[in-house]
């Protein structure tokens, strides 16, 4: 089991090293096709003049939806953990 | 809290609401957006909760209402982002004139729903932390 853990860590380490090696050099950026596409067509594809808003809520809407899910879960978790025992929903359920 | 703090926070509360609403509703035109706008509106509620007692605020905006608002906003967000933005992008609210208030397609709707998510999350956490 211990060797298994070491093996898994070594595999991920090698993968990480390979991935870092293929990053663009510091101060430059690699493929700029996507960025260029957003800049050129963002306003006309989404109708939104603010390009940040167009990217966050339209092109990468699924990412933002995941963020909202995280927020929802965090708020519900705090709400459930920090509740008073005799309050609201909990009291109705217990009765 | 003090009378001065109460008066000043009562005075500041609508202004903070107005500024947050401006950031949310103009997110597709100017810098801003659902996240900072929602944070500002949530901070306005935090100011009220701190300066007054928590019961005074909760009398107006109860916890079950918060959960209802949050759920509706989340459902709107999921439906819009998953389906509509691919199907009806050109037709809905999209007058094709940039810099007008009713441009922006679905981003206006998603901004409002997302800001509701942020506001309700902040207020829910605030209620839970202030008075269990």
Structure explained in plain terms:
The complex is a heterodimer of chains A (95) and B (132). Chain A is 75% helix and 0% strand. Chain A is an all-alpha fold and 95 residues long. In chain A, helix 2 packs across helix 3 and helix 3 crosses helix 4 (61-81). The termini of chain A are far apart. In chain B, helix 2 (34-51) crosses helix 3 (54-60) and helix 4 packs antiparallel against helix 5 (107-130). Chain B has helices spanning 3-25, 34-51, 54-60, 63-87, 107-130. Chain B is an all-alpha fold.
Which structural category fits the helices and strands of chain B? mainly alpha
- Share of helical residues of chain A: over 70%
Q: Could you tell me the number of beta strands of chain A?
A: 0
Distance between the termini of chain B: 20 Å
Strand content of chain A: under 5%
Strand content of chain B: under 5%
Shape of chain A: flat
Along the chain, the helix and strand elements of chain B come as: HHHHH
Number of helices of chain B: 5
What would you say about this model in short?
The complex is a heterodimer of chains A (95) and B (132). Chain A is mostly helical.
